[in-house]
Amino acid sequence: MAPNLFMSTTNAGSGDPALLPAARESALQIVELLKAVPPFSYLDAAEAAKSVGRIFSEEYLTNANDYFTAAQSGALTNPDRSPICKRDEAAACAADFGASGRGG
Length: 104
Fold this sequence. Notes:
Elements: H1 2-11, H2 20-34, H3 45-55, H4 58-73, H5 90-100
Helix pairs in contact: 1-2, 2-3
């Protein structure tokens, strides 16, 4: 339940940092359970746990909230691409935004 609640608030642009610990713990429990379920048992659980730590972090949440705000206002910018990422470039812009760590 915690990851769903966390993700729904994050997807709405109002991710709540108070939900991070419970969501992170739930996600880690899912990774642990998947270790016994083929084909997921082939997953590198240690690497998955690192990813969970990165995704369910204050920094990631701030970046996601900033991205949502920029997307809503039409102000997504990236100096490595065009001055303004237009709607038809949304996927590339989102990838640049997340990879750069710069946020809007």
